[in-house]
Protein backbone atom coordinates (compact mmCIF):
# COMPACT_ATOMS: atom_id res chain seq x y z
CA UNK A 1 0.00 0.00 0.00
CA UNK A 2 1.25 3.38 -0.90
CA UNK A 3 2.24 5.71 1.89
CA UNK A 4 -0.10 8.64 2.53
CA UNK A 5 0.22 11.52 0.14
CA UNK A 6 0.50 11.78 -3.61
CA UNK A 7 1.70 14.41 -6.01
CA UNK A 8 5.11 15.73 -6.88
CA UNK A 9 7.28 18.32 -5.21
CA UNK A 10 6.21 21.70 -6.50
CA UNK A 11 9.12 23.64 -5.08
CA UNK A 12 8.67 27.00 -3.37
CA UNK A 13 5.38 28.64 -4.30
CA UNK A 14 4.99 32.38 -4.82
CA UNK A 15 3.16 34.28 -2.11
CA UNK A 16 -0.47 35.21 -2.58
CA UNK A 17 0.04 38.94 -2.10
CA UNK A 18 -3.07 39.84 -4.07
CA UNK A 19 -5.26 37.41 -2.14
CA UNK A 20 -3.68 38.46 1.14
CA UNK A 21 -4.24 42.12 0.41
CA UNK A 22 -7.98 41.54 -0.05
CA UNK A 23 -8.23 39.40 3.08
CA UNK A 24 -6.20 41.93 5.07
CA UNK A 25 -8.61 44.78 4.46
CA UNK A 26 -9.80 46.17 7.76
CA UNK A 27 -7.32 44.12 9.85
CA UNK A 28 -5.44 46.54 12.08
CA UNK A 29 -3.34 44.23 14.27
CA UNK A 30 -0.10 42.81 13.05
CA UNK A 31 1.34 39.46 14.09
CA UNK A 32 3.87 40.92 16.50
CA UNK A 33 1.13 42.71 18.37
CA UNK A 34 -0.95 39.57 18.65
CA UNK A 35 1.26 36.57 19.24
CA UNK A 36 2.69 37.50 22.67
CA UNK A 37 4.56 34.58 24.23
CA UNK A 38 8.19 33.61 24.33
CA UNK A 39 10.74 33.15 21.62
CA UNK A 40 10.07 36.42 19.84
CA UNK A 41 12.51 37.79 17.27
CA UNK A 42 14.94 40.56 18.10
CA UNK A 43 14.13 42.66 15.07
CA UNK A 44 14.78 40.29 12.16
CA UNK A 45 12.98 40.77 8.88
CA UNK A 46 10.09 42.45 10.67
CA UNK A 47 12.16 45.39 11.90
CA UNK A 48 11.28 49.07 11.79
CA UNK A 49 12.15 49.25 8.07
CA UNK A 50 8.75 47.76 7.23
CA UNK A 51 10.23 44.53 5.90
CA UNK A 52 8.39 41.25 5.72
CA UNK A 53 8.98 38.23 7.92
CA UNK A 54 9.33 35.28 5.56
CA UNK A 55 8.29 31.83 6.81
CA UNK A 56 8.87 28.63 4.87
CA UNK A 57 6.10 26.04 5.34
CA UNK A 58 6.20 22.50 3.91
CA UNK A 59 3.85 19.53 4.00
CA UNK A 60 3.24 16.24 2.22
CA UNK A 61 0.03 15.47 0.39
CA UNK A 62 -1.74 15.59 -2.93
CA UNK A 63 -3.08 18.44 -5.03
CA UNK A 64 -6.35 18.75 -3.10
CA UNK A 65 -4.49 19.07 0.21
CA UNK A 66 -2.25 21.70 -1.35
CA UNK A 67 -5.27 23.71 -2.47
CA UNK A 68 -6.68 23.63 1.06
CA UNK A 69 -3.39 24.65 2.64
CA UNK A 70 -3.04 27.55 0.20
CA UNK A 71 -6.47 28.83 1.25
CA UNK A 72 -5.56 28.49 4.92
CA UNK A 73 -2.23 30.27 4.45
CA UNK A 74 -3.95 33.07 2.56
CA UNK A 75 -6.27 33.56 5.55
CA UNK A 76 -3.27 33.69 7.89
CA UNK A 77 -1.45 36.19 5.70
CA UNK A 78 -4.61 38.27 5.53
CA UNK A 79 -4.62 38.66 9.30
CA UNK A 80 -0.84 39.04 9.52
CA UNK A 81 0.25 41.40 6.71
CA UNK A 82 3.77 41.51 8.11
CA UNK A 83 4.31 37.83 7.27
CA UNK A 84 4.90 36.20 3.89
CA UNK A 85 4.50 32.40 3.94
CA UNK A 86 6.30 30.48 1.20
CA UNK A 87 4.82 27.01 0.69
CA UNK A 88 5.81 23.73 -0.90
CA UNK A 89 4.67 20.12 -0.82
CA UNK A 90 5.58 16.65 -2.03
CA UNK A 91 4.47 13.05 -1.91
CA UNK A 92 5.14 11.35 1.44
CA UNK A 93 8.40 9.62 0.46
CA UNK A 94 9.80 12.58 -1.46
CA UNK A 95 8.82 14.90 1.37
CA UNK A 96 10.98 13.08 3.91
CA UNK A 97 13.88 12.76 1.48
CA UNK A 98 13.84 16.54 1.06
CA UNK A 99 13.47 17.20 4.81
CA UNK A 100 16.36 14.86 5.69
CA UNK A 101 18.59 16.67 3.19
CA UNK A 102 17.59 20.07 4.62
CA UNK A 103 18.04 18.86 8.20
CA UNK A 104 21.60 17.78 7.46
CA UNK A 105 22.35 21.37 6.46
CA UNK A 106 20.35 23.02 9.24
CA UNK A 107 17.90 24.44 6.71
CA UNK A 108 14.52 22.92 7.57
CA UNK A 109 11.39 24.99 6.81
CA UNK A 110 10.29 27.20 9.68
CA UNK A 111 7.10 25.15 10.01
CA UNK A 112 6.80 21.59 8.75
CA UNK A 113 4.15 18.94 8.77
CA UNK A 114 5.23 16.14 11.11
CA UNK A 115 4.36 12.45 11.36
CA UNK A 116 4.52 10.30 14.50
CA UNK A 117 6.91 7.97 12.67
CA UNK A 118 9.57 10.70 12.47
CA UNK A 119 9.03 12.97 15.45
CA UNK A 120 11.40 11.09 17.76
CA UNK A 121 14.23 11.18 15.19
CA UNK A 122 13.81 14.89 14.53
CA UNK A 123 13.46 15.78 18.21
CA UNK A 124 16.36 13.70 19.53
CA UNK A 125 18.66 14.97 16.78
CA UNK A 126 17.85 18.61 17.57
CA UNK A 127 16.22 19.25 14.20
CA UNK A 128 12.92 20.56 15.57
CA UNK A 129 12.35 22.83 18.54
CA UNK A 130 10.48 22.03 21.75
CA UNK A 131 7.30 24.07 21.77
CA UNK A 132 6.55 24.22 25.50
CA UNK A 133 7.52 27.89 25.88
CA UNK A 134 4.85 28.77 23.30
CA UNK A 135 2.06 26.68 24.79
CA UNK A 136 -0.74 28.76 26.25
CA UNK A 137 0.65 31.99 24.82
CA UNK A 138 1.52 31.57 21.16
CA UNK A 139 -0.13 28.15 20.75
CA UNK A 140 -3.41 27.26 22.47
CA UNK A 141 -3.52 23.55 23.35
CA UNK A 142 -6.49 23.80 25.72
CA UNK A 143 -8.64 23.02 22.68
CA UNK A 144 -6.98 19.62 22.08
CA UNK A 145 -8.01 16.23 23.50
CA UNK A 146 -5.64 14.98 26.19
CA UNK A 147 -5.80 11.48 24.67
CA UNK A 148 -3.64 12.47 21.67
CA UNK A 149 -1.01 14.53 23.52
CA UNK A 150 1.23 11.57 24.51
CA UNK A 151 2.11 11.18 20.83
CA UNK A 152 3.50 14.73 20.74
CA UNK A 153 6.08 14.36 23.52
CA UNK A 154 9.68 13.20 23.34
CA UNK A 155 11.68 13.18 26.56
CA UNK A 156 8.83 14.96 28.33
CA UNK A 157 8.82 17.95 25.95
CA UNK A 158 6.27 18.81 23.26
CA UNK A 159 7.59 18.74 19.70
CA UNK A 160 4.42 18.62 17.62
CA UNK A 161 0.91 20.07 17.67
CA UNK A 162 -1.84 17.73 16.39
CA UNK A 163 -4.03 19.36 13.78
CA UNK A 164 -6.25 16.31 13.36
CA UNK A 165 -6.88 12.77 14.51
CA UNK A 166 -7.77 9.56 12.73
CA UNK A 167 -7.93 5.81 13.01
CA UNK A 168 -7.82 2.94 10.55
CA UNK A 169 -10.83 1.87 8.51
CA UNK A 170 -11.80 -0.38 5.64
CA UNK A 171 -13.06 1.93 2.91
CA UNK A 172 -15.27 0.31 0.26
CA UNK A 173 -16.75 1.77 -2.91
CA UNK A 174 -20.38 0.80 -2.48
CA UNK A 175 -21.37 2.16 -5.91
CA UNK A 176 -18.81 -0.10 -7.57
CA UNK A 177 -19.82 -3.09 -5.45
CA UNK A 178 -23.43 -2.59 -6.54
CA UNK A 179 -22.32 -2.61 -10.20
CA UNK A 180 -20.36 -5.80 -9.60
CA UNK A 181 -23.17 -7.47 -7.67
CA UNK A 182 -20.96 -8.02 -4.61
CA UNK A 183 -22.59 -7.39 -1.20
CA UNK A 184 -21.09 -4.77 1.11
CA UNK A 185 -19.36 -6.58 4.01
CA UNK A 186 -20.54 -6.30 7.60
CA UNK A 187 -18.65 -4.47 10.38
CA UNK A 188 -17.21 -7.60 12.04
CA UNK A 189 -15.60 -9.27 9.03
CA UNK A 190 -12.83 -11.71 9.97
CA UNK A 191 -9.47 -11.67 8.20
CA UNK A 192 -10.39 -14.82 6.31
CA UNK A 193 -13.76 -13.33 5.44
CA UNK A 194 -12.12 -10.14 4.19
CA UNK A 195 -9.73 -12.05 1.95
CA UNK A 196 -12.68 -13.99 0.53
CA UNK A 197 -14.49 -10.71 -0.09
CA UNK A 198 -11.48 -9.36 -2.03
CA UNK A 199 -11.39 -12.53 -4.13
CA UNK A 200 -15.11 -12.21 -4.87
CA UNK A 201 -14.61 -8.63 -6.07
CA UNK A 202 -11.80 -9.76 -8.37
CA UNK A 203 -13.91 -12.56 -9.83
CA UNK A 204 -16.81 -10.17 -10.47
CA UNK A 205 -14.55 -7.50 -11.97
CA UNK A 206 -12.38 -9.69 -14.19
CA UNK A 207 -14.30 -8.91 -17.38
CA UNK A 208 -14.44 -5.15 -16.86
CA UNK A 209 -12.18 -2.57 -18.47
CA UNK A 210 -10.15 -1.70 -16.53
CA UNK A 211 -10.11 -4.91 -14.53
CA UNK A 212 -11.29 -4.48 -10.94
CA UNK A 213 -9.37 -6.17 -8.13
CA UNK A 214 -10.23 -6.42 -4.46
CA UNK A 215 -7.63 -3.99 -3.15
CA UNK A 216 -3.97 -3.08 -3.22
CA UNK A 217 -1.65 -5.19 -1.04
CA UNK A 218 -2.59 -4.36 2.54
CA UNK A 219 0.28 -6.41 3.96
CA UNK A 220 2.70 -3.58 3.06
CA UNK A 221 1.00 -1.19 5.52
CA UNK A 222 2.97 -1.25 8.79
CA UNK A 223 0.25 0.57 10.75
CA UNK A 224 -2.20 -2.19 9.85
CA UNK A 225 0.37 -4.78 10.93
CA UNK A 226 0.57 -2.90 14.23
CA UNK A 227 -3.22 -3.19 14.63
CA UNK A 228 -3.07 -6.90 13.72
CA UNK A 229 -0.44 -7.41 16.42
CA UNK A 230 -2.62 -5.55 18.92
CA UNK A 231 -5.50 -7.89 18.13
CA UNK A 232 -3.21 -10.71 19.25
CA UNK A 233 -2.11 -9.06 22.45
CA UNK A 234 1.28 -7.97 21.09
CA UNK A 235 2.86 -4.59 20.35
CA UNK A 236 5.23 -3.19 17.77
CA UNK A 237 7.74 -2.28 20.49
CA UNK A 238 8.29 -3.37 24.07
CA UNK A 239 8.84 -1.03 27.02
CA UNK A 240 12.60 -1.03 26.43
CA UNK A 241 12.32 0.11 22.79
CA UNK A 242 12.94 -3.34 21.32
CA UNK A 243 10.60 -5.22 19.02
CA UNK A 244 7.49 -6.63 20.68
CA UNK A 245 7.05 -9.44 18.16
CA UNK A 246 9.18 -12.08 16.47
CA UNK A 247 9.97 -13.48 13.02
CA UNK A 248 7.07 -15.94 13.14
CA UNK A 249 4.58 -13.09 13.57
CA UNK A 250 5.89 -11.21 10.56
CA UNK A 251 6.07 -14.42 8.51
CA UNK A 252 2.40 -15.12 9.29
CA UNK A 253 1.45 -11.56 8.26
CA UNK A 254 3.49 -11.38 5.07
CA UNK A 255 2.55 -14.98 4.27
CA UNK A 256 -0.89 -13.67 3.26
CA UNK A 257 0.57 -11.69 0.37
CA UNK A 258 1.70 -14.40 -2.13
CA UNK A 259 -1.52 -16.36 -1.96
CA UNK A 260 -3.68 -13.26 -2.39
CA UNK A 261 -1.61 -12.08 -5.36
CA UNK A 262 -1.85 -15.55 -6.89
CA UNK A 263 -5.64 -15.42 -6.50
CA UNK A 264 -5.75 -11.94 -8.09
CA UNK A 265 -7.33 -10.47 -4.97
CA UNK A 266 -4.62 -7.78 -4.88
CA UNK A 267 -3.99 -5.31 -7.68
CA UNK A 268 -0.84 -6.47 -9.54
CA UNK A 269 2.18 -4.43 -8.44
CA UNK A 270 3.05 -3.59 -12.06
CA UNK A 271 -0.34 -1.94 -12.49
CA UNK A 272 -0.12 -0.20 -9.13
CA UNK A 273 3.21 1.32 -10.21
CA UNK A 274 1.55 2.67 -13.36
CA UNK A 275 -1.07 4.39 -11.20
CA UNK A 276 1.56 6.45 -9.33
CA UNK A 277 -0.16 9.62 -8.21
CA UNK A 278 -3.63 8.04 -8.43
CA UNK A 279 -5.35 5.86 -5.85
CA UNK A 280 -6.49 2.47 -7.12
CA UNK A 281 -9.86 2.82 -5.42
CA UNK A 282 -10.22 6.32 -6.83
CA UNK A 283 -9.58 5.03 -10.35
CA UNK A 284 -12.15 2.23 -9.78
CA UNK A 285 -9.49 -0.45 -10.22
CA UNK A 286 -10.04 -1.67 -6.67
CA UNK A 287 -13.20 -1.71 -4.60
CA UNK A 288 -11.66 -1.55 -1.12
CA UNK A 289 -8.66 -0.17 0.73
CA UNK A 290 -7.66 -0.33 4.40
CA UNK A 291 -6.36 3.13 5.21
CA UNK A 292 -6.80 6.04 7.60
CA UNK A 293 -10.45 7.04 7.87
CA UNK A 294 -9.84 10.60 6.64
CA UNK A 295 -8.76 9.16 3.27
CA UNK A 296 -12.47 8.64 2.60
CA UNK A 297 -12.58 12.25 1.39
CA UNK A 298 -9.67 11.81 -1.02
CA UNK A 299 -10.84 8.44 -2.31
CA UNK A 300 -14.36 9.74 -2.89
CA UNK A 301 -13.10 12.84 -4.69
CA UNK A 302 -10.78 10.72 -6.83
CA UNK A 303 -13.66 8.44 -7.81
CA UNK A 304 -15.81 11.35 -8.92
CA UNK A 305 -17.86 11.47 -5.74
CA UNK A 306 -18.69 7.77 -5.61
CA UNK A 307 -20.56 6.58 -2.52
CA UNK A 308 -18.20 4.83 -0.11
CA UNK A 309 -18.62 3.19 3.28
CA UNK A 310 -16.35 3.13 6.33
CA UNK A 311 -16.04 -0.21 8.11
CA UNK A 312 -13.67 -1.32 10.89
CA UNK A 313 -10.60 -3.26 9.73
CA UNK A 314 -10.95 -7.05 9.81
CA UNK A 315 -10.86 -8.67 13.24
CA UNK A 316 -11.21 -12.20 14.52
CA UNK A 317 -12.40 -11.08 17.98
CA UNK A 318 -14.50 -7.87 17.90
CA UNK A 319 -13.62 -7.28 21.56
CA UNK A 320 -9.94 -6.91 20.59
CA UNK A 321 -9.81 -4.56 17.61
CA UNK A 322 -6.34 -3.17 18.33
CA UNK A 323 -7.42 0.28 17.12
CA UNK A 324 -6.25 3.57 18.61
CA UNK A 325 -6.76 7.25 18.02
CA UNK A 326 -3.66 8.98 16.70
CA UNK A 327 -2.67 12.42 15.47
CA UNK A 328 -3.12 12.08 11.73
CA UNK A 329 -0.95 15.14 11.18
CA UNK A 330 1.14 17.38 13.42
CA UNK A 331 2.96 20.66 12.89
CA UNK A 332 6.49 21.23 14.18
CA UNK A 333 8.92 24.14 14.23
CA UNK A 334 12.48 24.04 12.92
CA UNK A 335 15.12 24.34 15.61
CA UNK A 336 16.87 26.85 13.35
CA UNK A 337 13.97 29.17 12.64
CA UNK A 338 14.82 32.84 13.01
CA UNK A 339 11.15 33.65 13.67
CA UNK A 340 9.86 31.35 16.43
CA UNK A 341 7.03 33.65 17.52
CA UNK A 342 5.68 33.96 13.99
CA UNK A 343 6.13 30.25 13.37
CA UNK A 344 4.19 29.50 16.58
CA UNK A 345 1.44 31.84 15.45
CA UNK A 346 1.16 30.01 12.11
CA UNK A 347 0.99 26.64 13.91
CA UNK A 348 -1.73 27.96 16.22
CA UNK A 349 -3.72 29.41 13.32
CA UNK A 350 -3.61 26.24 11.19
CA UNK A 351 -4.56 24.18 14.25
CA UNK A 352 -7.27 26.27 15.87
CA UNK A 353 -8.90 28.74 13.50
CA UNK A 354 -12.51 27.72 12.69
CA UNK A 355 -12.11 28.96 9.12
CA UNK A 356 -9.23 26.55 8.63
CA UNK A 357 -11.43 23.81 10.07
CA UNK A 358 -14.01 24.68 7.44
CA UNK A 359 -11.42 24.68 4.64
CA UNK A 360 -10.06 21.23 5.47
CA UNK A 361 -13.19 19.54 6.74
CA UNK A 362 -12.22 15.91 7.48
CA UNK A 363 -9.61 15.65 4.70
CA UNK A 364 -6.77 15.63 7.29
CA UNK A 365 -8.83 13.64 9.79
CA UNK A 366 -11.19 14.92 12.46
CA UNK A 367 -9.93 18.38 13.52
CA UNK A 368 -8.14 17.92 16.84
CA UNK A 369 -9.09 21.40 18.04
CA UNK A 370 -12.57 21.91 19.45
CA UNK A 371 -12.38 25.49 18.20
CA UNK A 372 -11.49 24.40 14.66
CA UNK A 373 -14.46 22.03 14.70
CA UNK A 374 -16.74 25.04 15.24
CA UNK A 375 -16.12 25.84 11.58
CA UNK A 376 -17.47 22.50 10.43
CA UNK A 377 -20.85 21.85 8.94
CA UNK A 378 -20.20 18.21 8.11
CA UNK A 379 -22.09 16.50 5.33
CA UNK A 380 -21.35 13.55 3.07
CA UNK A 381 -17.92 11.94 3.69
CA UNK A 382 -17.10 14.40 6.50
CA UNK A 383 -20.20 13.32 8.39
CA UNK A 384 -19.36 9.67 7.73
CA UNK A 385 -15.92 10.07 9.31
CA UNK A 386 -17.35 11.75 12.40
CA UNK A 387 -19.98 9.04 12.82
CA UNK A 388 -17.41 6.29 12.28
CA UNK A 389 -15.08 7.58 15.01
CA UNK A 390 -17.98 8.27 17.36
CA UNK A 391 -19.27 4.70 16.94
CA UNK A 392 -15.80 3.23 17.55
CA UNK A 393 -14.89 5.57 20.43
CA UNK A 394 -15.61 3.03 23.22
CA UNK A 395 -13.19 0.59 21.57
CA UNK A 396 -10.37 3.03 20.79
CA UNK A 397 -7.35 3.51 23.02
CA UNK A 398 -5.35 6.71 23.48
CA UNK A 399 -2.50 7.43 21.14
CA UNK A 400 0.67 5.60 22.18
CA UNK A 401 3.90 7.54 22.71
CA UNK A 402 5.88 8.27 19.55
CA UNK A 403 7.69 5.20 18.20
CA UNK A 404 11.40 4.77 18.72
CA UNK A 405 14.01 6.72 16.80
CA UNK A 406 14.53 5.12 13.43
CA UNK A 407 10.93 4.00 13.03
CA UNK A 408 10.54 6.05 9.85
CA UNK A 409 13.37 4.05 8.27
CA UNK A 410 11.84 0.78 9.49
CA UNK A 411 8.47 1.80 8.03
CA UNK A 412 10.07 2.61 4.66
CA UNK A 413 11.91 -0.74 4.71
CA UNK A 414 8.65 -2.51 5.56
CA UNK A 415 6.98 -1.02 2.49
CA UNK A 416 9.97 -1.58 0.21
CA UNK A 417 10.48 -5.22 1.21
CA UNK A 418 6.73 -5.81 1.06
CA UNK A 419 6.74 -4.51 -2.51
CA UNK A 420 9.60 -6.88 -3.39
CA UNK A 421 7.51 -9.70 -1.97
CA UNK A 422 4.53 -8.66 -4.09
CA UNK A 423 6.68 -8.87 -7.23
CA UNK A 424 7.87 -12.32 -6.19
CA UNK A 425 11.50 -11.24 -6.14
CA UNK A 426 11.91 -12.49 -2.56
CA UNK A 427 10.31 -15.29 -0.58
CA UNK A 428 8.42 -14.70 2.65
CA UNK A 429 11.37 -16.10 4.62
CA UNK A 430 13.82 -13.85 2.79
CA UNK A 431 11.59 -10.81 3.29
CA UNK A 432 11.32 -11.46 7.03
CA UNK A 433 15.08 -11.97 7.35
CA UNK A 434 15.80 -8.74 5.47
CA UNK A 435 13.46 -6.65 7.61
CA UNK A 436 14.67 -8.06 10.91
CA UNK A 437 18.27 -7.45 9.81
CA UNK A 438 17.42 -3.80 9.15
CA UNK A 439 15.54 -3.57 12.43
CA UNK A 440 18.48 -4.97 14.37
CA UNK A 441 20.80 -2.44 12.75
CA UNK A 442 18.42 0.48 13.25
CA UNK A 443 17.57 -0.35 16.86
CA UNK A 444 21.18 -1.05 17.76
CA UNK A 445 20.93 -4.80 18.23
TrEMBL record:
Organism, scientific name: Kineococcus glutinatus
SUPFAM superfamilies for the chain: Periplasmic binding protein-like II
Entry protein name: ABC transporter substrate-binding protein
Amino acid sequence: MRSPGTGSDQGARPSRRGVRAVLAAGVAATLLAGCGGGGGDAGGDAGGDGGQVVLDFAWWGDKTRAERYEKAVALFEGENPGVDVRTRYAAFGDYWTARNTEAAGGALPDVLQMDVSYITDYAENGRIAPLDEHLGSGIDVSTLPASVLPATKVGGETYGIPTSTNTLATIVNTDLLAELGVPVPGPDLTWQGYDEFLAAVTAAGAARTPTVHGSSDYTQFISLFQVWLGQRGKAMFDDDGGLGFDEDDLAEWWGRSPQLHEAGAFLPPERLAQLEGTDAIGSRESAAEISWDNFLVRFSEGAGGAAMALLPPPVDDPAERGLFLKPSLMLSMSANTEHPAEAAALIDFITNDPRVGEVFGMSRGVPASARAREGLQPTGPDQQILEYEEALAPQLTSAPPPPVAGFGALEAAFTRIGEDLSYGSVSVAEAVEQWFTEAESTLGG
